[in-house]
Write a structure and sequence with these properties.
Oligomer: homodimer
CATH architecture of the largest domain in chain A: 3-Layer(aba) Sandwich
CATH topology of the largest domain in chain A: Chorismate lyase
Strand content of chain A: 25-35%
Radius of gyration of chain A: 22 Å
Number of helices of chain A: 7
Structural class of chain A: alpha+beta
CATH superfamily of the largest domain in chain A: Chorismate lyase-like
Largest interface: A-B, 33 and 33 residues
Helix content of chain A: 25-40%
Order of helices and strands of chain A: HHHEEEHEEHHEHEEE
Number of strands of chain A: 9
Distance between the termini of chain A: 45 Å
Largest sheet of chain A: 6 strands, antiparallel
Shape of chain A: globular
Chain lengths: ~240, ~240
DNA sequence: CAGTGGTCTAGACCACGAG
DNA sequence: TCGTGGTCTAGACCACTGT
């Protein structure tokens, strides 16, 4: 109907161009997690497209995990949740069998020049100051994970002012509320190795016992690397399951 | 237009009922991998539906991995491929860096009563006869995987008659051509443990070195369990990578 | 070229959620 | 009851593939 003010290559399908336009709003802060999107009809009118075309664009973003649809309520910007993290394959339950978030004991929190392999991951210069932290995650008095965490100091200055009691077991809400850094997604890498002496002591396993090592790089909506962490847990507590075809 | 002869609950959407009808054809042998499906228009005419509705049904099956669409050519029954297997995260390349299928050396091939944990997986009775096989997978003279395989004897009688030279590194084509058993999908479970003495010897690693253990249960189109296997490889060769949000 | 799937339209009607 | 997304129709036209 009206002239469509859609970004992107005019040779691409309209639904793709609309999807890209909306995706841009999501990766910039224009629309935030939890926001409701305009209705399909409203978007159709705004961009001069048929409702079906708008629907196709929204479906693409839903498939991509950026939006969430609720029949009768609307379409919403999805809050990232890390339900798909590899950690869900650790058999870390309560003694009663319930899933619980392990408590956290901070063993160390300092500022250090970033070693080169960390700096590369965080997209900062070799040796630039970084906040590093060691934590032990504990469930029913049993140590379950040993974590080493690195943050670029420039973005997380405020994190240093927090007292330990202000830092709960979940860090991402703290990054958001205290440092204005919102984690949108992450990449995880899994391997296994023989427990080094310090890790063995922390996890209370034999030296050289097999441990699962999960490295995670967390990123913001604009793809900026925000946090790198390495977590290690007992291999005998870990069973990853998947279906293939 | 015409009376639709669609299976399923009449309260469900038409596209779902069509999808279920077609899925049934696929899980039974009516349509086999590689077959071309009737065109969208042909299906629409056959079932008295609008083309868009048929398209929606096919899309569901494509998303499900049962069909494959090719623009201008048609829609085809997908051949299962195990590209998504966890084994792709082993750094098993040739010395030149190319991906190659490891050779296979069969160490043992016998018939034994199925131990209960295997029988449970294969859906046969505890102690029922099963074919079991040990293989060592080798790449450029280096052992990379140790495998233990179990098959229900009733379905795989013909497998016993084969000479070792007739069994290549890839078993599933042999199961199909020689035993009429077509693998459609599989479930894999991954964990890590310390190498037991025999595995350490086969893989030429230290005793108690960490090894990745992948258990796979392969199933037919009708969901019958066909093969159980446990594969073990060096943990230092394994790096699983995934993205989450 | 004919036949396939891919995009897009402009509606209708239904099912669900919230006020 | 109203507004939302979900299903469905009956086309038109485009883009790709094979002959």
């Amino acid at each position: 109907m009206t002239a469509t003010a859609l970004a992107g290559d005019a040779r691409l399908p309209l639904y793709q161009r609309l999807a890209e336009t909306l995706r841009y709003d999501l990766t910039q802060g224009t629309r935030r997690p939890g926001d409701r999107m305009p209705s399909e009809n409203a978007l159709a009118a705004e961009y001069g497209l048929a409702p079906g075309t708008v629907r196709q664009a929204l479906s693409a973003l839903v498939d991509d995990g950026l939006l969430e649809r609720f029949h009768g309520r609307g379409t919403f910007v999805r809050r990232p949740s890390f339900d798909r993290s590899l950690f869900r394959f650790f058999r870390f339950r309560d003694s009663s069998g319930e899933w619980r978030i392990p408590e956290s004991r901070i063993l160390k929190r300092t500022v250090e020049p970033a070693p080169s392999h960390i700096a590369r991951q965080l997209g900062i210069k070799d040796g630039e100051p970084a906040i590093t932290m060691s934590r032990l995650r504990i469930l029913s008095d049993a140590p379950v994970l040993a974590e080493e965490i690195w943050l670029p100091k420039a973005r997380f200055e405020a994190f240093l002012d927090l007292s330990e009691s202000e830092i709960g077991p979940l860090l991402y809400p703290v990054y958001d509320s205290r440092c204005g850094q919102l984690v949108a997604r992450a990449e995880e890498t899994l391997t296994a190795e023989a427990a080094r002496p310090e890790i063995a002591r922390l996890l209370r396993v034999d030296r050289n016992a097999p441990v699962i090592v999960i490295d995670r790089l967390a990123k913001g909506f604009d793809d900026t690397p925000l946090e790198w962490r390495r977590s290690q847990g007992r291999a005998d507590q870990f069973h990853y399951h998947t279906e293939i075809r």
